[in-house]
Specification:
Layout lengths: L4 E5 L5 H11 L4 E5 L15 H15 L5 H25 L2 E5 L9 H7 L3 E5 L12 H4 L5 H21 L2 E4 L11 E3 H4 L5 H8 L11 E6 L6 H11 L5 E6 L4 H9 L3 E3 L10 H8 L3 E5 L12 E3 L4 H10 L1 H18 L2 H13 L7 E2 L14 H15 L10 H11 L1
Parallel strand pairs: 1-2, 1-3, 3-4, 4-5, 5-6, 7-8, 7-9, 9-10, 10-11
Antiparallel strand pairs: 6-12
Helix pairs in contact: 1-14, 2-3, 11-13
Length: 417
């Protein structure tokens, strides 16, 4: 008898809805409980029972109610606690395997020990933001967080990762994210990110016909934490030399962003990535579009055929694709084959099923004590160096929470010396 599986409680870029779909196609009884709506409306693309839609609406209302309305906020928190406890009791009785997304939990994480007590299997999937130190995450650095706040957030994240390591049977994450891990984990890029190319094609429809002399259309994610300002500046410079049309993706729903990419010739994912194939490039590949990802983890082991280059090499890569239509076509076609064959919901679910069944190949495990990656995500090397220098000058090297990673700490000491 197949184990009964619960996936939840948050959706990240469509990953978990597609994973649930793939596992169902393999014959597993799967429920996907998404308790919060997303800004890109991925939940609109997944069939959801009416009761779960009501629960999601309530949880989103509770989250979005400001403290300037204290009565509503307190009532929402109280009702939310009762709701989460009730859902946990239902899940405890109904499911055998729990796949938790991001930093999800019913009761703040302490329920994991109850699940283990009842013999449940727990798999935690880390998507990055819950495991990268804040001092190497441009999402926080660009907001101008104080050193004291960064230090507090780092301590909290260290404790979070440790608690999940102790409670979970398996953790899945990308190798460069393992700053605070001490136990082996599964390399997330081996499992892959599920992507339904047929569904994407239905959402997009047929792009308008293009003429040979049309300008080269280049889309990019116009967000500060994706290097949007630098990418726009780069494209503005190239626009003085080449006939290009710049198509920023900003403030769009998921279907709108897909249509923008479908009508483009080149897709630039981001400037400072710590993984070779983020979701935007994966979806561009499903559409048969050439995509480029830049970041300091470009020399990590590769599993996909898209372009992953150093940030300083991004302009040269874009120029090579502008000047060579055949190269764009070959790259787009190879990515489309890769997505359809290796990243389909069923293909990813088949690999994920080995984690569910406990039949995990040795080669999938990563030893975090052997991983030395310094440069995080969404920020330049100089910004991260400056932040680490200021933090350690004022609060000492212990503030990095890397005392159990002497090689990693020594590498930072060498960089900021």
């Amino acid at each position: 008898m197949r184990p009964r599986i619960l996936i939840g409680l948050k959706e990240i870029a469509g990953y978990y809805g597609q994973l649930a779909l793939g596992l169902r196609q393999l014959g597993y009884p799967v429920s996907f409980w998404q308790l919060l709506s997303t800004s890109h409306r991925y939940e609109a693309e997944t069939a959801t029972p009416l009761v779960m839609q009501w629960i999601r609406q309530f949880c989103s209302w509770r989250r979005d109610t400001p403290w300037s309305r204290p009565f509503r906020k307190v009532v929402g928190i109280g009702l939310g606690a009762v709701l989460h406890f009730g859902l946990f009791l239902i899940a405890l009785c109904r499911f055998d395997v729990f796949i938790f997304s991001y930093d999800s939990s019913f009761l703040g994480g302490w329920e994991f020990w109850i699940l283990r007590l009842f013999g449940k299997r727990i798999i935690c999937v880390f998507n990055g933001s819950e495991s990268r130190p804040p001092y190497v995450d441009g999402t926080y650095l660009h907001r101008g967080y104080s050193l004291a706040k960064l230090a507090t957030m780092t301590q909290k994240m260290k404790r979070f990762v440790a608690s999940r390591e102790q409670a979970a049977n398996v953790i899945v994450m990308v190798s460069p994210h393992g700053y605070f891990n001490t136990k082996p984990f599964i390399h997330g890029m081996i499992i892959g990110q599920p992507c339904d190319a047929d569904r994407i094609a239905r959402l997009v429809g047929s792009p308008a016909a293009r003429k040979p002399d049309d300008p080269v259309r280049i889309s990019f994610y116009d967000a500060l934490n994706k290097g949007g300002d630098e990418i726009r500046g780069l494209l503005d410079r190239l626009g003085q030399r080449y006939a290009i049309e710049i198509r920023p993706i900003k403030g769009m729903t998921h279907p709108e962003s897909l249509r923008c990419m479908a009508g483009s010739d080149i897709v630039i994912d981001q400037l400072y990535s710590d993984m070779a194939l983020p979701m935007m490039s994966l979806e561009a590949g499903a559409l048969g579009r050439a995509s480029i990802v830049a970041g300091y983890a470009y020399d990590e082991p590769r599993f996909s055929p898209n372009i992953f280059c150093a940030p300083e090499a991004l302009e040269a890569m874009v120029v090579s694709l502008i000047e060579d239509p055949e190269k764009r076509q070959v790259l787009g076609e190879s990515m489309q084959r890769y997505v359809c064959e290796e990243m389909s919901a069923v293909s990813v679910a088949r690999r994920f099923s080995k984690l569910i069944e406990g039949d995990i190949p040795e080669s999938w495990w990563v030893d975090p004590m052997q991983t030395v990656y310094l440069w995080g995500v969404s920020a330049s090397r100089s910004m991260i160096c400056e932040t680490v220098r200021h933090l350690t000058d004022q609060l000492g090297w212990s503030v990095l929470q890397l005392g159990d990673k002497p090689d990693l700490e020594a590498a930072y000491q060498k960089e900021v010396a």
